[in-house]
């Protein structure tokens, strides 16, 4: 998915290079994508938090896109009721009957081979909670390994202060410590 800020930059560059004030300098575009996907991940630098912006939220979007074509035919599902339920969920407009039908799908699933399917969670805290539950269910000794972080240098080769380093380390995906168990 193209970030809205990048969309604006590309549009301006195209107008400048082509020396034409038409959108994208008069270049004909065909844009395609699933706009129900998660937002694009913006480029970040160490000092600024850049918000995520969809392409359709770009300042130049309405000037560049006259009339979008929305593809609406579903190919992978044949049950029209289920298709309607999925469409309502994607757009965030669930009615009571949608929710009732989705709740009917809730059930415990058991696997004879002992291998559980991968679980997906929207939040890091939920992932950690699930992982910890499974970790503590394992037999064996527990080992804790702590990170040994040290402050680095900025682009000008100046040592990063502790005040600046701490928030940077907090944003890392890597935890400060990791607990492992040897399970035989």
Short account of what is shown:
By secondary structure, the protein is mainly α. The protein contains six helices and two strands; from the N terminus they run αααααβαβ.
Characterise the protein shown here:
The chain is mainly α and 184 residues long. It has three domains: 4-64, no CATH class; 75-107, no CATH class; 124-181, no CATH class. Helix content is 34%, strand content 5%. The protein has helices spanning 4-18, 61-64, 80-91, 96-103, 124-137, 162-170; strands spanning 142-146, 177-181. The chain has a two-stranded antiparallel sheet. The longest helix is centred in the N-terminal third of the chain and has 15 residues, at 4-18. It is flat, with a radius of gyration of 24 Å. The mean pLDDT is 87.
